[in-house]
Design goal:
Shape: globular
Largest sheet: none
Strand content: under 5%
Helix content: over 70%
Length: about 150
């Protein structure tokens, strides 16, 4: 946490509060609403995501063009371009299957707990375990690749 502005954590909490309130207000923290969207019977989620993407896009565009540094971290604004590769395709597919099975994406899952959907904690535990296992798998595979290179 060293080097961060003292207001960093309060602003992050405020952002989380706004995000959670918006998800709850728009009913996007309800798995049944998300599943209806995924089954093409209710397109409200599409409008919520589209509206959020427009606002976020405008804010990030202005922040990037301003040439100033981020007020809380002191780092310059920059776009991180991720190439579309095999990992993106496979990871996105796995994420999509998990989203379809649980009926909720990670951000909305946390907001769903806030509206009293406590059974979603099982899905959150699954997300944490899955992320942990992926990290273990990635470190194991990078270690074995490093050892293979050293052997050559």
């Amino acid at each position: 946490m060293s080097g961060r502005h003292p207001a960093f954590m309060p602003v992050v909490v405020l952002g989380g509060l706004l995000f959670g309130f918006g998800l709850g207000y728009s009913h996007m923290a309800r798995p049944e609403v998300v599943l209806d969207f995924l089954q093409f019977t209710d397109f409200g989620l599409l409008f919520v995501m589209f509206g959020a993407a427009i606002v976020t896009g405008i804010v990030f565009t202005i922040a990037t063009w301003s040439g100033r540094r981020a007020p809380l971290t002191g780092k310059s604004y920059a776009r991180r371009l991720k190439s579309f590769d095999r990992n993106v395709l496979i990871g996105g597919s796995i994420f999509g299957v998990g989203w379809g099975i649980s009926g909720i994406c990670p951000g909305a899952a946390y907001a769903s707990v806030g509206i009293g959907n406590y059974p979603i904690l099982v899905a959150i535990a699954g997300m944490l375990l899955g992320a942990y296992l992926q990290g273990v798998w990635r470190s194991e595979s990078s270690t074995s690749e490093t050892n293979a290179v050293k052997a050559d």
